[in-house]
Amino acid sequence: MRRVVILGGGTAGTMVANKLRAAYPQEQLHLTVVDQDDHHHYQPGYLFLPFGQLAPRQIVRARHSFIPDGVDLVLCGIESVDAKAKTVQLRTGDQLSYDTLIIATGVQPRPEATEGGDGPEVGKSVHHFYDLAAAESLQEAMRTFRGGRLVIHITEMPIKCPVAPLEFTFLADAFFADKKIRKKVEIVYVTPLDGAFTKPIASRELGDALAKRNIALETDFAIERIDNETKEIVSFDDRHIPFDLLVTVPLNMGPDYIAASGLGDENNFVPCDQGTMQSLADPDIFVLGDGGTLKTSKAGSVAHFAVDIFMENFPDYLAGRQLTHNFDGHANCFIETGHGKGMLLDFNYETQPYTGAFPLPVVGPMTLLKETPANHWAKVAFRWVYWNLLITGRPLPFTADMYLMGKKVEDTASGTSTKDLLLGLFGRRKHGGSAVTAPKASARPTLPSSAAGKPAAKSSARPASRPAARPAAKSAAPAAPVPAYVAQKGVDSTADAASVLPDPILPKF
Ligand SMILES: Cc1cc2nc3c(=O)[nH]c(=O)nc-3n(C[C@H](O)[C@H](O)[C@H](O)COP(=O)(O)OP(=O)(O)OC[C@H]3O[C@@H](n4cnc5c(N)ncnc54)[C@H](O)[C@@H]3O)c2cc1C
What we know:
Layout: E1 2-7, H1 11-23, E2 29-35, E3 39-41, E4 60-62, E5 71-75, E6 78-82, E7 87-90, E8 95-97, E9 100-103, E10 108-110, E11 126-127, H2 132-144, E12 148-154, H3 164-178, E13 185-190, H4 200-212, E14 216-218, E15 223-227, E16 232-235, E17 240-242, E18 245-249, E19 251-253, H5 256-260, E20 285-287, H6 300-318, E21 331-338, E22 341-347, E23 356-360, E24 364-368, H7 373-390, H8 418-426, E25 436-437, H9 473-476
Parallel strand pairs: 1-2, 1-9, 2-5, 5-25, 9-20, 11-18, 12-13, 12-18, 13-14
Antiparallel strand pairs: 3-4, 6-7, 7-8, 10-19, 15-16, 16-17, 21-22, 23-24
Helix pairs in contact: 1-6
The structure holds flavin-adenine dinucleotide (FAD).
């Protein structure tokens, strides 16, 4: 029996635990998920909290209820990984041995890594919305803001959901317009990039969307410090941007145990193969979700597509064969643009976001790179999709490989088909009998204290006895045969240079 330990039970960890358990019987794979607490956060919900559009209870659920039967869930902090000995050291002093390790501990905001990021103005005029406590605090600041200069700022790329700061900006514009004080609020968007976004076409479209709303764009801003006294952000090239309310997205870093294990780069991202998500240092370690060095967005959609490719490769990995399925960096990014509209970007490592319909050719119902109500409603519906389909590993009508006209037929795309989608919607499996080790999981989700989700330690500032492997009683009974995972051929849409449509934007379908 092969022991697979999954570090992190967030988006990617929960998804891959569900997919592996459905695909392999317990006699073949012993699965353990480790996470520091029992609170699974729907992080896209943080964006809506400051505007009072979602409440914390809609964002947090009990982690254990999404871990399938027959998977051990260990609730404990991770101290380090010894890749040579193939062991994981837990904060309790216990050790887990593994044959295969999946790192899915994501990245976390580190405000203290920027000078002044933990100064006296934090929680007063300096805020962020990249964890639950901070987003709640920002809600109060937005509610009581009566006018002045609102600065939205990104410390450094990459950050998870790179469009979230733009979405916050658009929603703030709409929020103050609805409150009839938009004219009293000057909004400035400050980014380290040379435009509104990383991809040139999207950058142009989003830059136009900012200009249309009378939002100033300050580019190439490499922050040196947040001056809490003068209330301004200062760049290394000595630009000073004053604020009355600062919403700054902190540096995003992987957890400290990555550094302690010698597995990461200076941001604690784990270097991995762009196609297979296999660690460059150790072939028995994979990185799924935000924690790796994939050159695409850190986003739940990317985690989803990468997990699908991982699943396609896993039989070959188990058999010691070469991994043949390559992730193409496919990302979908929904962008809330305010007043009930949204935009959708679809791109991969090589391609620009295109226009066209999504996910179905011509029919849509979503439209790429255009502000539409359907895109907004898709983002609203995504919360239900996240809890009910995405993290439970059910099929979705989005293909892991980004497809272009004539390149791939929707129904044979890897991972999903219309038939799979219907089966996913109506063929709900029951979860809930997994083995949970200390601390005991509460039956009902309790909201974390304000300290939960905060970055681990200030010291990590930038720059510079195995738990019981009890199989769950329920899942031990072979009530239904475990369906074999059927690998489908993935097609790398970037392999054929002729299929990459050039700028200017051409229709995708
Ligand atoms: C404001 C915001 C808006 C977003 N909007 C979108 C969106 O619209 N669409 C989209 O696709 N994505 C969005 N995302 C990004 C998305 O949430 C992440 O990309 C996704 O959650 C990454 O999954 P992951 O499994 O890598 O990490 P996570 O889901 O963050 O899970 C990591 C897990 O590891 C655990 N962990 C970390 N360190 C330790 C440790 N030392 N010991 C034990 N456990 C540990 C954590 O508790 C956590 O449960 C958004 C993110 C934010 C912050």
